[in-house]
């Protein structure tokens, strides 16, 4: 079966549905971040940035299935799967759309959704990777389904009130190393951990 195939051997190397993790931009070594600060331009939605701080609690993202679908907790995410990344602290989803980003004029990336974490198709990202599954130690890309843009960072930094944080954008080219992201610190749910009677049975993973 699918589950036994994953469990045999390499299960713990995969990123799975229901896991909470931090994502590091491979090129800039910053972690994907959000907070209750809205953009002053563009959509005016909640801003998404990059931070060099490893321990910031506002950099945790929950992996969910696309809107209207369901993925089993602990199920390995396949290359080509469409997911949502929900910001744990504010419950909004990583989002993009045809607005210009504040600093570089690329495509804006924001956090969007209601208090239940429900937004729209602008929250859908395809996991682009080389093998069969998203492996925790590899750099993967996130392609925005509505616009075909890739999640990226520019290296430009903001002033107040998010001083020193880096601009996160969508770009149309995947030729840059700045479109690769790696799973870092987090709580990873494994297929072998999943028990419907113990829904909070997570394995802590905090290696750098």
Automatic annotation (TrEMBL):
Biased composition (Polar residues): 99-109
The entry's keywords: Repeat, Signal
Keyword Signal found: yes
Superkingdom field: Eukaryota
Region Disordered: start-end pairs: 99-118
TM spans (from-to): none
Repeat among keywords: yes
Record domain MIR: where: 12-66, 74-130
Protein name: MIR domain-containing protein
Species for this entry: Timema podura (Walking stick)
